Automatic annotation (TrEMBL):
This is MBL fold metallo-hydrolase. InterPro entries: Metallo-B-lactamas, RibonucZ/Hydroxyglut_hydro, UPF0173_UPF0282_UlaG_hydrolase. It catalyses: 3',5'-cyclic CMP + H2O = CMP + H(+); 3',5'-cyclic UMP + H2O = UMP + H(+). It holds the Pfam family Lactamase_B_2. It comes from the Bacteria. It comes from Paenibacillus solisilvae. Residues 7-178 form the Metallo-beta-lactamase domain. Counteracts the endogenous Pycsar antiviral defense system. Phosphodiesterase that enables metal-dependent hydrolysis of host cyclic nucleotide Pycsar defense signals such as cCMP and cUMP.
Length: 245
């Protein structure tokens, strides 16, 4: 199994002749200003057999890019409740999933499991298995009490792709809480330890920092390294880089 990093929260997974992508993003949301990392046309990462989406937010479900670069007929799997919340699009094969459901995609098996969104919207984490290896991609989850259940059901993991930017948001018309809506670096390390992951691949950081609307927690990578020391291996990947499991 090979993991290829995409910008922001995206990854591409390849096993034998099968490839899938999770949360690919090309059209950076304009409300967050200019991105702090480069975004690439999705076809520069290679073809895929299916697209897995953790939730319907615009920085995780880029409908136009999926249609443009993979074709309108590409199978897209996302939480069942998210389909009604997603904006109108040209995709012709969007299929809803529920927690606990598994899908066979060529030589891969993808299973939807528990995740918690910072605004209470539907979200799943994806467990992907193939070639004797297993990873989990957790979208932009908060800390929650189901890490132990996930490990019991699916673990241990060869890799955990976890959000790390501990972002605090102040959207217009919403009373600010001052609380992060996604894992911070220390929580991501703790989640990786509970999941019994061999390696932690950080996702969901760097691209967006647009205070006060969206404020990334300071010193993300430094804090990850300090927290992970002696607990879990880190694989900090740049866009287009690969990690072989």
């Amino acid at each position: 199994m090979k993991i290829q990093k995409l910008p922001w929260a995206g990854i591409r997974v390849e096993v034998e002749q099968t490839s899938i992508v999770i949360d690919p993003l090309f059209h950076f949301p304009a409300k967050y200003g200019e991105p702090h990392e480069r975004f690439y046309p999705l076809d520069e990462f290679g073809s895929v057999d299916a697209v897995l989406i953790t939730h319907h937010h615009g920085d995780h479900f880029d409908q136009a890019a999926i249609s443009t670069y993979y074709g309108a007929d590409i199978p897209v799997y996302m939480p069942q409740e998210s389909i009604a919340l997603a904006a109108a699009h040209e995709l012709k094969s969007v299929q809803g999933v529920t927690v606990g459901q598994s899908i066979e995609i060529g030589s891969l098996t993808a299973s939807a499991t528990f995740s918690v969104d910072g605004f209470g919207d539907p979200q799943v984490a994806w467990v992907v298995e193939g070639g004797g290896k297993k990873l989990i991609h957790c979208g932009d989850t908060l800390w929650h009490g189901s890490w132990w259940r996930i490990e019991k059901a699916y673990g241990p993991f060869d890799a955990a792709c976890l959000p790390v930017n501990g972002a605090v948001l102040e959207p217009p018309g919403v009373t600010p809480s001052g609380q992060p809506i996604v894992l911070n670096p220390e929580q991501a390390v703790s989640a990786a330890v509970v999941l019994k992951a061999s390696v932690l691949v950080p996702i969901h950081y760097k691209a967006i920092h647009y205070p006060p609307l969206y404020t990334e927690t300071p010193n993300v990578l430094e804090r990850l390294e300090q927290s992970a020391n002696g607990k879990v291996k880190l694989a900090v990947l740049k866009a287009k880089e690969f990690l072989a499991l």
